[in-house]
Design a protein that fits this description.
By secondary structure, the chain is α/β, with parallel strands linked by helices. Helices cover 34% and strands 22% of the residues. The protein has a single domain, classed as Flavodoxin domain (Rossmann fold), CATH 3.40.50.360. The longest helix has 15 residues.
Protein backbone atom coordinates (compact mmCIF):
# COMPACT_ATOMS: atom_id res chain seq x y z
CA UNK A 1 0.00 0.00 0.00
CA UNK A 2 1.33 3.41 -0.99
CA UNK A 3 2.26 5.78 1.84
CA UNK A 4 2.29 9.55 1.93
CA UNK A 5 5.89 10.48 2.75
CA UNK A 6 7.08 13.94 3.76
CA UNK A 7 10.81 14.61 3.71
CA UNK A 8 12.03 17.75 5.47
CA UNK A 9 15.58 18.75 4.61
CA UNK A 10 16.98 21.48 6.83
CA UNK A 11 20.39 22.28 5.38
CA UNK A 12 20.89 25.71 3.89
CA UNK A 13 24.03 24.66 1.96
CA UNK A 14 23.85 23.79 -1.71
CA UNK A 15 24.85 20.17 -2.40
CA UNK A 16 24.87 19.47 1.32
CA UNK A 17 25.54 15.95 2.42
CA UNK A 18 22.33 15.65 4.47
CA UNK A 19 20.30 16.94 1.53
CA UNK A 20 21.88 14.38 -0.81
CA UNK A 21 21.02 11.57 1.61
CA UNK A 22 17.46 12.91 1.90
CA UNK A 23 17.16 12.79 -1.89
CA UNK A 24 18.37 9.18 -1.84
CA UNK A 25 15.61 8.34 0.66
CA UNK A 26 13.18 10.12 -1.67
CA UNK A 27 14.39 8.08 -4.62
CA UNK A 28 13.93 4.85 -2.67
CA UNK A 29 10.43 5.85 -1.54
CA UNK A 30 9.42 6.79 -5.08
CA UNK A 31 10.84 3.54 -6.47
CA UNK A 32 8.70 1.68 -3.93
CA UNK A 33 5.58 3.43 -5.26
CA UNK A 34 5.01 5.91 -2.45
CA UNK A 35 3.64 9.44 -2.74
CA UNK A 36 6.60 11.61 -1.73
CA UNK A 37 6.90 15.33 -1.07
CA UNK A 38 10.34 16.86 -0.51
CA UNK A 39 10.52 20.17 1.36
CA UNK A 40 13.73 22.09 1.93
CA UNK A 41 13.53 24.64 4.74
CA UNK A 42 15.95 26.91 2.90
CA UNK A 43 14.11 30.07 1.93
CA UNK A 44 11.10 29.30 4.13
CA UNK A 45 9.83 32.02 6.44
CA UNK A 46 9.51 30.21 9.77
CA UNK A 47 9.34 32.33 12.89
CA UNK A 48 10.13 31.00 16.36
CA UNK A 49 7.31 29.70 18.53
CA UNK A 50 5.83 32.49 20.65
CA UNK A 51 4.85 30.15 23.48
CA UNK A 52 1.41 31.74 23.60
CA UNK A 53 -0.34 28.34 23.77
CA UNK A 54 -3.25 29.57 21.60
CA UNK A 55 -2.63 26.65 19.22
CA UNK A 56 -3.53 24.18 21.96
CA UNK A 57 -7.15 25.38 21.74
CA UNK A 58 -7.43 26.32 18.07
CA UNK A 59 -5.04 23.71 16.57
CA UNK A 60 -3.59 26.60 14.54
CA UNK A 61 -0.71 28.93 15.11
CA UNK A 62 -1.46 32.64 15.47
CA UNK A 63 1.51 33.46 13.24
CA UNK A 64 1.05 33.78 9.50
CA UNK A 65 4.24 32.41 7.95
CA UNK A 66 5.22 29.35 5.91
CA UNK A 67 4.53 26.98 8.82
CA UNK A 68 0.77 27.26 8.33
CA UNK A 69 1.10 25.29 5.08
CA UNK A 70 3.84 22.99 6.37
CA UNK A 71 1.85 21.98 9.47
CA UNK A 72 -0.92 20.47 7.36
CA UNK A 73 1.69 18.55 5.33
CA UNK A 74 3.12 17.10 8.56
CA UNK A 75 -0.35 16.28 9.91
CA UNK A 76 -1.37 14.42 6.74
CA UNK A 77 1.86 12.49 6.12
CA UNK A 78 2.05 8.80 6.99
CA UNK A 79 5.84 8.90 7.25
CA UNK A 80 8.20 11.75 8.19
CA UNK A 81 11.88 11.85 7.28
CA UNK A 82 13.98 14.65 8.75
CA UNK A 83 17.44 15.42 7.39
CA UNK A 84 19.81 17.72 9.24
CA UNK A 85 23.45 18.65 9.36
CA UNK A 86 24.92 18.46 12.86
CA UNK A 87 26.13 21.75 14.31
CA UNK A 88 27.76 21.66 17.75
CA UNK A 89 26.51 18.09 18.35
CA UNK A 90 22.89 19.05 17.73
CA UNK A 91 20.34 19.32 14.92
CA UNK A 92 20.53 22.59 13.04
CA UNK A 93 18.48 25.52 14.30
CA UNK A 94 16.17 25.51 11.27
CA UNK A 95 14.96 22.00 12.09
CA UNK A 96 14.59 22.70 15.80
CA UNK A 97 12.50 25.78 15.06
CA UNK A 98 10.39 23.74 12.61
CA UNK A 99 9.78 21.04 15.23
CA UNK A 100 8.85 23.64 17.87
CA UNK A 101 6.33 25.16 15.49
CA UNK A 102 4.60 21.78 15.11
CA UNK A 103 3.06 22.36 18.53
CA UNK A 104 -0.46 22.83 17.06
CA UNK A 105 -0.35 19.11 16.18
CA UNK A 106 0.05 18.04 19.80
CA UNK A 107 -3.59 18.11 20.99
CA UNK A 108 -5.10 17.00 17.67
CA UNK A 109 -4.97 13.99 15.42
CA UNK A 110 -2.21 13.24 12.93
CA UNK A 111 -1.45 10.48 10.43
CA UNK A 112 2.29 9.95 10.85
CA UNK A 113 3.51 6.85 12.65
CA UNK A 114 7.06 6.25 11.43
CA UNK A 115 9.65 8.98 11.79
CA UNK A 116 13.21 8.78 10.45
CA UNK A 117 16.27 10.96 10.93
CA UNK A 118 19.20 11.48 8.58
CA UNK A 119 22.22 13.33 9.94
CA UNK A 120 25.61 14.32 8.62
CA UNK A 121 28.51 15.73 10.57
CA UNK A 122 32.10 16.75 10.08
CA UNK A 123 33.13 14.73 13.13
CA UNK A 124 33.96 11.13 12.32
CA UNK A 125 32.40 9.67 15.47
CA UNK A 126 28.84 8.42 14.94
CA UNK A 127 27.90 9.47 18.48
CA UNK A 128 28.13 13.08 17.28
CA UNK A 129 24.49 12.74 16.20
CA UNK A 130 23.23 11.32 19.51
CA UNK A 131 22.02 14.66 20.89
CA UNK A 132 20.10 15.44 17.71
CA UNK A 133 18.53 11.99 17.77
CA UNK A 134 17.56 12.46 21.42
CA UNK A 135 16.03 15.83 20.55
CA UNK A 136 13.92 14.24 17.85
CA UNK A 137 12.99 11.40 20.21
CA UNK A 138 11.74 14.01 22.67
CA UNK A 139 9.53 15.46 19.94
CA UNK A 140 8.30 12.00 18.92
CA UNK A 141 7.45 11.17 22.55
CA UNK A 142 4.81 13.91 22.43
CA UNK A 143 3.02 11.96 19.68
CA UNK A 144 2.08 8.64 21.27
CA UNK A 145 1.21 6.94 17.96
CA UNK A 146 4.61 7.81 16.42
CA UNK A 147 7.98 6.11 16.75
CA UNK A 148 11.55 6.52 15.61
CA UNK A 149 11.64 3.92 12.85
CA UNK A 150 15.21 4.36 11.64
CA UNK A 151 18.20 6.58 11.05
CA UNK A 152 21.15 7.17 8.78
CA UNK A 153 24.20 8.66 10.47
CA UNK A 154 26.67 10.18 8.03
CA UNK A 155 29.74 10.91 10.13
CA UNK A 156 33.01 12.34 8.88
CA UNK A 157 31.62 14.30 5.93
CA UNK A 158 31.93 18.05 5.69
CA UNK A 159 32.59 19.33 2.19
CA UNK A 160 29.74 19.63 -0.31
CA UNK A 161 29.10 16.33 -2.12
CA UNK A 162 31.56 14.47 0.12
CA UNK A 163 28.82 11.95 0.95
CA UNK A 164 29.15 10.67 -2.63
CA UNK A 165 32.37 8.97 -1.48
CA UNK A 166 30.29 6.84 0.92
CA UNK A 167 28.14 4.51 -1.17
CA UNK A 168 27.17 2.54 1.95
CA UNK A 169 25.45 5.60 3.42
CA UNK A 170 23.77 6.43 0.12
CA UNK A 171 22.48 2.85 0.05
CA UNK A 172 21.21 3.08 3.65
CA UNK A 173 19.26 6.23 2.83
CA UNK A 174 17.84 4.65 -0.33
CA UNK A 175 16.79 1.55 1.61
CA UNK A 176 14.99 3.60 4.26
CA UNK A 177 12.87 5.09 1.51
CA UNK A 178 12.37 1.79 -0.24
CA UNK A 179 11.36 -0.11 2.90
CA UNK A 180 8.86 2.29 4.46
Amino acid sequence: MSKKVLIISSSFRLQSNSDILAHEAQRGALDAGNDVEFVNLKGKNINPCLGCMACQKTLRCVQNDDMSKLISKVRNADVLIFATPIYFYEMCGQLKMFLDRCYPLYPGDYNFRDVYIITTSRAAATHTSDTATMGLLGWITCFEKANLAGMVIGAGVNNPNEIMEHPDLLQQAYEIGQNL
